[in-house]
Amino acid sequence: MAKKVTMQQIADYLGVSKYVVSKSLSGKEGVNPETREKVFKTAAKLGYFSQKGQKIDDETMNVNVDKVDTATLKKRVVLVLMPNIRFQNKESQYWGRILDGISESLESMGLGMVVLTENNVETLDTVLNPKGIVGVISIGVVSTAILLEVHRFNIPIVMVDYEEPLIPSDMVFNNSFDSSFQLTSHLIGLGHTRIEYIGNISYSRSFYDRWLGYRSALENNSLVVPKNDIDYEEEEILTPEKIKKWFENKTEQTMPTALVCSNDNVAKQIITVLQQCGVNIPGDISVTGFDNMDFSYDMSPTITTVDFQKKGLGKRAVEMLMRRVAHKDDPYEKILLTGSIILRESTIAINPIENRGGK
Fold first, then answer.
1. Where are the domains of the chain?
2. pLDDT given for residue 87 in this prediction
3. Which of the two ends of the chain, N or C, has the fewest CB atoms closer than 10 A to its terminal CB?
4. Is the peptide bond preceding residue 130 cis, with omega within 30 degrees of 0?
5. What gap in Å lies between CA 190 and CA 208, rounded to an integer?
6. pLDDT digits (tens, 9 = 90+) for 110-143
7. Is 158 helix (H, G, I), strand (E, B) or coil?
8. 164-182 tens-digit pLDDT
9. Sorted alphabetically, which SUPFAM superfamilies does this protein's record hold (predicted)?
10. In what order do the strands lie in the sheet with 170-174?
11. Angle, helices 33-46/7-14, rounded to nearest 10 degrees
């Protein structure tokens, strides 16, 4: 039998005091956020959170929805975690719709919802009353420290459009890989052979899956996968300056005839800057996006994109959470929801012979 992991072992591993570890794990103030994050990750790595001593009692959390009466459930809420950063907030046309789907489903069940958008463990500690929480749904990229804090309390959690390798949980994603594969294959069918992917693949799992689908489609057609030569920073943000620099560094031989963008926000940025540089979209370069945001069909040209059921993600997350609460020992699930390609004005066919000539 493995020995119990202690706070002192975590402290020794990190070279900090046991007092710092204790304050970090209990969510108390007075610890540097960076240090707290390291403590949580080390605790997870060493198996501290998987110990029985760190779990709250079964009566508190193991509620069987199939058997519990409605009145009991109505006294409890679902905690929804989401960041509050550019593009990823409650007002977002993408993330906000997911939140709407969660809200509608919970309301139909008579369950309440608490939304936490500040990514710090101190705030979570003030709201986290395990006896009053049915479970947690995280939307998008949520702090590892917060997710580990939830896991420490043994609260059921479902992650939407994100996964944290340190934490076993149910997850629901849009099927980005297949959709990107189909979208890129469509461009190839239009005669495009110089196709680039634009987007920070390290930002999120969905961005990475979209790149994998794009790459797979190129490789299946024996086409070269160009080097991703844009200097990305955090999030999905591309500044006009970076787009212009990328464009100016291209030659006739390396200029793509089509771009697969990680989402509609990136596609909009690309189209806007390239048009300012005198590029005709789609005459010179075809551009595609993802997510079918409202502005994608109001632009000129309208954006060829992939439509995902945003509310559907939220509703499915609630279904998965209720299943987990009712059947806590069932295998974890990773659900993929299918998207559909919407063809609009930003993509056209080109002469495949001229394109392969690399003029």
1. 1-54, 63-168+310-338, 176-304+343-356
2. 55
3. N
4. no
5. 24
6. 888 888 775 555 556 555 666 678 889 999 888 7
7. strand
8. 888 889 999 999 999 999 9
9. lambda repressor-like DNA-binding domains, Periplasmic binding protein-like I
10. 112-116, 77-81, 133-139, 157-160, 170-174, 334-337
11. 120
CA distances from 216 to 175, 177, 207, 225 (A): 15, 9, 14, 9
Classify 27 in phi/psi space as left (phi over 0), alpha (psi -120 to 50) or beta. Answer: left
Residue 84 has a pLDDT of 63
pLDDT tens track for 291-350: 999 899 999 999 999 998 889 999 999 999 999 999 989 999 999 999 999 999 999 998
Q: Which fold has domain 63-168+310-338?
A: Rossmann fold (3.40.50)
Establish whether domains 63-168+310-338 and 176-304+343-356 are of one fold.
yes
According to DSSP, the residues that pair with 159 across neighbouring strands are 138, 171
CB contact at 8 A, 176 and 188? no
Residue 39, exposed/middle/buried by CB under 10 A (0-12, 13-18, 19+)? buried
Identify which has the larger pLDDT, 181 or 46.
Answer: 181
**Structure token digits, residue 182:** 């189909």
Q: Which helix (H) or strand (E) holds 218?
A: helix 205-220
What mean pLDDT is predicted for residues 64-85?
A: 58
Closest among 163, 173, 133, 165 to 150, alpha carbons compared: 133
What's the predicted TM-score (pTM) here? Answer: 0.71
Average pLDDT over residues 216-235: 83
Question: How is residue 22 written in tokens?
Answer: 């204790």
